[in-house]
Amino acid sequence: MEGRSLGKSSNRCIYHDYPLVITMRSDIADSTQTEEELRKALQVAQARIAQYEQAVSMISDIVWRYDVNTKGEYVGSYISPVADRMLGLPIGTIGDSFEKYFSYVHPDDLPAVQEILSEGIRTLGKDKIAEYRMLKADGTTLWVRSKCSAYGRFNVYGTTRDITEHKRAEEALRESEKKYRLLIDKANESIIVAQDGLLKFVNPATLDLLGGGYSEQELI
Fold first, then answer.
1. 192: which strand partners?
2. Residue 68 sits in a domain of what CATH number?
3. Which of 6, 56, 156, 161 satisfies CB 3.0 to 4.6 Å to 66 for a cystine?
4. Is 0.90 surpassed by the pTM of this model?
């Protein structure tokens, strides 16, 4: 078609070459298709985020993320709702606020918690670990162990686990060993403890039996 004017359409006048009209209609179709693809991609991304948050809310550890800008300043975060459950708080109390999270850290241990975050930001890819106390809603104390590492320049990812029972077991073992050693030290009989062919310790009765010329460390 060689004519340049195609006349009037139902809603507008068109005074362009025929190929140009076709191109414009194609662009509109492509734009509509692209918008539809973006909408579907957004739906998929939102579904995956929802699945991720559902998964991390079901495990026993707190999962968190701490974001900073190019100046190292805090700009955002994510904290799984496990934190609320662990501390006996209504779900949503802490939300994604590290300021609220820090408010439940024992004051004496707060510097150590803040330090692992700053170290995690400075040390890319290397795990940082801290054990500290947190104050529950009922006033009791629990021990937790946080582990974090930086990925990329501006994100620190970490987990926090309740290790209260582990700490209690350690303390019970120390108390048991202390009582055990006290009984051995008070015994009138000579007692020698060895392991793998090596002397571990001897009680005072053994030193007396040897005439008192050696200390326990000298014998070991």
1. 202
2. 3.30.450.20
3. 156
4. no
